[in-house]
């Protein structure tokens, strides 16, 4: 019975090999014992109990591993819920936004900052690449604040010749300089009680920066050619596509002005960092273009859609908007790759050789390095795909019944509809599988939901 004299405690490291060894010990004990004494029986029972505990632990571990494997799906659903909840909360608080937004966390963060800043008079600095919506955001801040019914005056600091800058911003007295034939109000006075939007603030020359700083500190201006101070109550929102901090390190932008302007700092993410918003923008701008051009909203072939979903958009939302207007104008009902501007098309585009959705990568591969995705873009695109696949699987499961899917994944129905729209998913396309499985659809609410979700 030597073998039985091994330590009976189960080792903390559990393995199937260890379990088999212990079972073999039990078998051998039973085989060689002609007669079992009480002590031996006790020993075997203890070993059997240890074995049972280990099997229990293994099964717990197994279940844990399975649950962990399912975790990403659950996390994805949780994430969708919380992102959707943030967007929903903004809408429920009647946040005014003259455009469209989905549930991209970076954009939501910018919008939430704007929402909080809007009712205050604190200066706001908006930065972001060209075409990311800085001017739109400035208007949003104005529209959501207490000055909404007062003037919003926009000044492009990069477009005013140096010698006219002071007069443009602060006005002048008659005869202050050659050509000043009468008194004239400047932009600050025009924006009194309202908001002044100082666009391209990074282009403001240093002398102009000094004068602006004085207005920010004293809340008064002097017209060119006058000593008389005029009090101005103007909320300042500035925008730039340059890195003001870096400019100030290089001595090209006054540091004190930078800190004055950026009490609240909002950064708008480039479109490549909010790709998940692209389908929403397709839909928004194709409707907008249809309205402007008085025609039906343009539809896209799958290969065009796939290409545009992964395109790099160096010109950000403005570029996407222009593309949608172009497609709406040049294509009939259905737009294809050939309707894109030549410099945007995949270089070696050969229509016959290009397939549907799975060829998106090939299309981009042909587009040259300018359109190559970065690693983070590729990850984001993969996450979008996972989201879409999750919704498709869900819709298949419930036979295209949106209300049922919302129930199952515990998601707000309107948010789910928005996601379906974002991915171009039509609930009716999933109904066939339901009918073939004999699933029933009976809720009038579902019909309403789905017609809403099926807006292209
Ligand atoms: N979320 C959005 N929804 C709808 N339209 C948008 C959105 N964001 C931006 N746009 C549109 O995109 C275009 C570019 O936006 P905007 O002019 O505000 O960008 P910008 O950052 O000021 O660009 P630039 O630096 O070149 O001046 C505008 O037509 C604007 O209405
Ligand atoms: Mg702008």
From TrEMBL:
Residues 34-61 form a coiled coil. It holds the Pfam family AAA_lid_14. Residues 100-329 form the Sigma-54 factor interaction domain. SMART domains: AAA. InterPro entries: AAA+_ATPase, AAA_lid_NorR, Homeodomain-like_sf, P-loop_NTPase, Sigma_54_int, Sigma_54_int_dom_ATP-bd_1, Sigma_54_int_dom_ATP-bd_2, Sigma_54_int_dom_CS. One of its GO terms (biological process) is regulation of DNA-templated transcription. Keywords: ATP-binding, Coiled coil, DNA-binding, Nucleotide-binding, Transcription, Transcription regulation. Residues 433-442 have a biased composition (Polar residues). Residues 426-456 are annotated as: Disordered. GO terms for molecular function: ATP binding; DNA binding. This is Anaerobic nitric oxide reductase transcription regulator NorR. It comes from Paraburkholderia solisilvae. The gene is norR_2.
